[in-house]
């Protein structure tokens, strides 16, 4: 204790947890803990639903920190990190600021600015692992580049192995005794632009926080036998529901991996289910390794020839898609699920994204932005990679000519129609509470009819999409 400094500063980003958090351990080793979250321009520019979810995650971490420190919670400050953090260094005399590295491009820029601001004070920024399964430098092709195709990437990652989780944080933590005053979390309005949507999410979103993440993982592993067979069925609750916990770092992917592997080794009947689940976690990892290598992935097509594709920009069909009034039952059900819960089943995400980019020939970036605005599990790498994958312009993408037929997808994956009935008031039978809650979540300027009407035109739209693609292919430079 006596060799410790005056304070250990932890700059939180997407690591809202106490377990497997090497940055937290390092800050505690430096001295009494001062854990700070900075609401900067990047956070303010995030989509409304993810800001709403962030606030819940911060409240949950704050409560746990208060319990372990006997009273001192999270310090939440508004400003730019390169101003806020040097002030804390001056106040505490700390020599280091610790952060779990969140490798998003905007955060990389902020880290550079913080480094520059700390140097004159004789302090430094120390980044720690924990957001990914392993450091991207460990999974490289023979030529030293990033893998562009998922299967060899997954093989290489499994060969290298996943990093082991770090030891848990101590049960009792000494906190810095004289922190500056910060924003009161309970009064903080991180998503005032949600309007009625916030109350609806309050009712239908999954519980937030680290304890909820562990409970969710445990429950999922208990039932993981059927994951392999049922994960594509939106009418069943067959997937883990961990994505928002992972997006905010309420649980680390390394912990998820280790606990799932452990269960798989102990219960042979779960090997296929958990094996498939681990390969989905690798998709998340793949998205991040790609994003780190190509930080423009959320703006520009990975394959540059796609810059010339004649995507439609803002249009009335896009508006109908956004408001869940396309008249295609599975598409509208999925868009309503997203508005009411902040999430959407993966199979349905693929269908709505394919419908927008192919049947409606609309720019994938517009769909991606709407998802970023509406998802509580928003993750910039997974969102961008998947949109590019569906649109056909990403690395290892599904080819453009492979166009999902939303009606066939519905018959195959929602055979009794219970998913569509759950989310779509006016589609077969009495509306459910969830279906009606959709209307409470809407901004008053959206005039969405309560009388849902089916619309045809899928075949015609598909033909137009294929014709546009043929024309594009002929004009595109040969590779
Ligand atoms: C157009 C589109 C946009 C998407 N945007 C996001 C996003 O913003 N944030 C996000 O977390 N996921 C996104 N996904 C991926 C996927 O839909 C969600 O991760 C998944 O639905 C979350 O549910 P779950 O946690 O129950 O998943 P499970 O099936 O239980 O999978 C376990 C974990 O693996 C990861 N995972 C699963 N599928 C994928 C995938 N296709 N790509 C990357 N990681 C995956 C997630 O971290 C997930 O929590 C998107 C998919 C599509 C098609």
TrEMBL record:
EC number: 4.1.99.3
UniProt keyword list: Chromophore, FAD, Flavoprotein, Lyase
Keyword flag Lyase: yes
Enzyme class: lyase
The Photolyase/cryptochrome alpha/beta domain, residue ranges: 6-133
Family matches, as SUPFAM superfamilies: Cryptochrome/photolyase FAD-binding domain, Cryptochrome/photolyase, N-terminal domain
Gene Ontology molecular function: any one: deoxyribodipyrimidine photo-lyase activity
Cofactor(s) for this UniProt protein: FAD; (6R)-5,10-methylene-5,6,7,8-tetrahydrofolate
Family to which the UniProt record says this protein belongs: Belongs to the DNA photolyase family.
Protein name: Deoxyribodipyrimidine photo-lyase
Taxonomic source organism: Paracoccus aurantius
């Amino acid at each position: 204790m006596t060799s410790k400094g005056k304070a250990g500063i932890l700059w939180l980003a997407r690591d809202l947890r106490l377990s497997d958090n090497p940055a937290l351990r390092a800050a505690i080793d430096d001295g009494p803990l001062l854990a700070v979250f900075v609401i900067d321009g990047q956070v303010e520019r995030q989509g409304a639903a993810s800001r709403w979810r962030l606030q819940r995650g911060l409240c949950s971490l704050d409560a746990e920190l208060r319990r372990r420190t006997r009273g001192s919670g999270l310090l939440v400050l508004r400003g730019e990190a390169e101003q806020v953090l040097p002030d804390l260094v001056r106040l505490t005399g700390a020599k280091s600021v610790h952060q779990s590295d969140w490798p998003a491009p905007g955060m990389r820029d902020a880290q550079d600015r913080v480094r520059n601001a700390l140097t004159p004070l004789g302090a430094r920024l120390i980044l720690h692992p924990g957001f990914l399964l392993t450091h991207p430098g460990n999974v490289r092709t023979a030529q030293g580049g990033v893998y562009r195709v998922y299967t060899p990437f997954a093989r290489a990652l499994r060969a290298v192995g996943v990093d082991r989780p770090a030891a848990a944080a101590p049960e009792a933590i000494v906190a810095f005794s004289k922190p500056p005053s910060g924003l009161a979390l309970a009064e903080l309005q991180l998503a005032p632009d949600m309007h009625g949507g916030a109350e609806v999410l309050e009712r239908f979103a999954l519980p937030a926080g680290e304890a909820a993440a562990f409970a969710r993982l445990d429950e999922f592993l208990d039932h993981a036998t059927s994951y392999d067979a049922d994960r594509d069925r939106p009418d069943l609750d067959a997937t883990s529901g961990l994505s928002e916990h992972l997006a905010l770092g309420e649980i680390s992917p390394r912990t998820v991996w280790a606990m799932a592997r452990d269960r798989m080794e102990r219960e042979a009947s779960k090997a296929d289910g958990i094996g498939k689940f681990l390969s989905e976690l690798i998709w998340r990892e793949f998205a991040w390794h790609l994003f780190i290598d190509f930080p423009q992935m959320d703006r520009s097509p990975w394959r540059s020839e796609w810059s010339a594709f004649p995507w439609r920009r803002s249009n009335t069909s896009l508006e109908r898609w956004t408001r869940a009034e396309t008249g295609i039952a599975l598409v509208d059900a999925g868009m309503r699920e997203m508005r009411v819960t902040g999430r959407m089943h993966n199979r349905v995400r693929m269908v709505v994204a394919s419908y927008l980019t192919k049947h409606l020939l609309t720019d994938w970036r517009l769909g991606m932005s709407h998802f970023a605005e509406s998802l509580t599990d928003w993750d910039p790498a997974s969102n961008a990679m998947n949109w590019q994958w569906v649109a056909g312009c990403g690395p290892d993408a599904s080819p453009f000519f492979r166009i999902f037929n939303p009606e066939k997808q519905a018959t195959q994956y929602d055979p009794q129609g219970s998913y569509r009935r759950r989310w779509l008031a006016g589609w077969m039978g009495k509306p459910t509470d969830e279906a009606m809650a959709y209307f409470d979540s809407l901004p008053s300027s959206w005039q969405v009819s309560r009388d849902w009407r089916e619309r045809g035109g899928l075949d015609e739209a598909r033909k137009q999409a294929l014709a546009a693609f043929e024309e594009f292919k002929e004009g595109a430079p040969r590779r």
